[in-house]
Amino acid sequence: MIALMQDSLIQAGDATGRSFYASKVSEFLNSEPDLIVGRLSKQHIAFHASAEAEQVRAWVREVEILRQTFERVGDTSHQWSILLEAPLLRLGKRMDAIVLMPGIVVVIEFKIGEASYTTAHCVQTERYALSLQDFHEASQSRLIIPVLCAENADPRSLNLSVRNGSVGLQRTNRNTLGDVLIDLEKMIDFRTPDLDALSFDLSPYRPTPTIIEAAQALYAGHGIADIGRGDAADSELQEAARILRAIVREAEAGRQKVICFVTGAPGAGKTLLGLDLAIKSRSNSQSGALLSGNRPLVHVLTEALAADCAARTGVSKSKAKYEADAAIQNLLGYLKEHTDGATPPENVIIFDEAQRAWNEEVGQKLMGRPTSEPALFLGILDRLDWSCLVCLVGPGQEINRGEGGLALWGEALAQSAKSGSVWKIIAAPQAIDGGPSVSGAGLAHCGTLDRNQLHSEAGLHLANGVRAYRNPLHGDWVAALLDSQIEKAKCISALMASPPAMITRDLRRAKAWLSEYRRGGRSVGLLTSSGAVRMVGEGVPPAPRSDDLTTIGHWFLKPYMDFRSSGALETPMSEFGCQGLELDYVGLCWGNDLIWSGSEWLPRMMRAPRWQIIRESEKKRFRLNGYRVLLTRARAGLVVFVPKGSADDPTRSPFEADMIFDALIAAGCGELD
User: Fold this and answer.
1) What's the first-to-final CA gap in the chain, in angstroms?
2) Looking at the DSSP assignment, which residues form a beta bridge with residue 289?
3) Model confidence over 3-49: pLDDT tens digits?
4) Cα(590)–Cα(594) distance, integer angstroms
5) Cis amide prior to 370 (ω within 30 degrees)
6) Domain that holds residue 322
7) What is the enclosing helix (H) or strand (E) of 166?
8) Are residue 168 and residue 316 in the same domain, yes or no?
């Protein structure tokens, strides 16, 4: 009899291939506890080489508590399903237990021996549940309940009210776990198709990591395939990564100089692609680095990589920081170090946001010579016997003077050819022909560049966004909105599962909305335009300067309980501090530096004591692009705060504020209030 039960148990576990154990509750109750623990240990060894004694003891207690719980609930629980050590993230995280009831997914995190409900354990449990809600296909149509079971903690009252499609965290001990399941019986929805353990295990799980999480994963040795979502955007990234690695190998083998242009919309994964190539190059025979002129992005990523590496490997923080700084470097520092003759150690260089390369005028100011940034780069890399320069190109992100777009690269390449230096040019079609993907003319339209030099590679364009995983059309909506095409924006919003943004006139309401979504370690924060200087009158303090890197690092990396964190909702960040980075939920404080005239957006700047309309086309583009950055930082949700203004303050006109509000409502925003 025991052998038969063991065979049945192994078959149940092997049927899924993902969870360590999965079966009906009735089978779970009829199986010997030792056999269940043995199954867990066997599966654990397949991943970790050994099953630690402490982990085995924890499993023994978990199985005991679950058996007692189901016996207390009674016969109705026997038709439910249970999974133990169910996989969540592709990087090895597993949930202790999942209980599947009709229409309900219960996520149980055990803390054996614990006598309290710590904040870290609460956040961990909520994060598991929210990850299922966001990324697990079968769970998204069901009610998800996170349950933290601290074995010896004092009992807590239960609250099964539904918030934002899920139930808040339930805190239980070994004796009160059954109370949750008994109360949940009243909420069972038999209209929802039954979900068994096998269906749950095999349902697609498509996590979308933040750029910080993705960088940490890549730095730890994982590949793009490990952190992708298994969808079209993931396939694009993997194919582009394969193409770039092949180009690097060919350049090295043939001792060639190759320049590549990768294009894609904001949030399509260009920086992730560049990080992958830089880190993989450093681990192979080549040496590579990602360069960015975005100092806040470089600082935040290197700080995050160093902290994660130190915690993961035990190396000192200073050594980890030194290695991270070599992989991701500040662009201007690189140029200053190598412009005057020093040969760079890296053969593979990735230039992030290459369309923002500066012209000769800025070169004179920054480097003391009238040379454009592309020309300087080509000159530096020309000293090597082979090199591969990968330029990541996006649209509408120029927010500083002197950023010349692809035309500067075309001119520099044409001039380099005249001087006898031969560069093989491989580019996405969009980089060659120009258009909205690159915000202007392409390489083929640079009058001095021979089109025959251009090799088109369709796989170097990333068409699908990965940042806004809730609303993949969000980037299109932002583009239509800022092009003053309100009706088009409204039509795009109608195709979305939820409004592209919520909107409110009450800052406290916006903060409350963000606080609701802060559960489970989700990142939230306030953003505002650098030109919105009168938001101070609305209770929004100024954003830190872009060179205040320590403050920006704390804002992105500290937990919300720390007042320096974005999640504390005390200080906003401007477009200069957040460009290239992201949050899960954003509160955008819309200022009077971009008002609606009735037919178009009017960018303005403060000339104290009054606003002045910006007439110069380049400055107008910078202000619109600043809002483009701010509107595309949210991965999951956006709320816009439009102040009511003050009749006593001409710089905070209520009429202008109402016009902004009405335009955003007309464009498809949902009213929060």
Assistant:
1) 63
2) 349
3) 333 333 333 444 445 889 999 999 999 999 999 998 888 877 656 55
4) 8
5) no
6) 211-227+254-462
7) strand 166-167
8) no
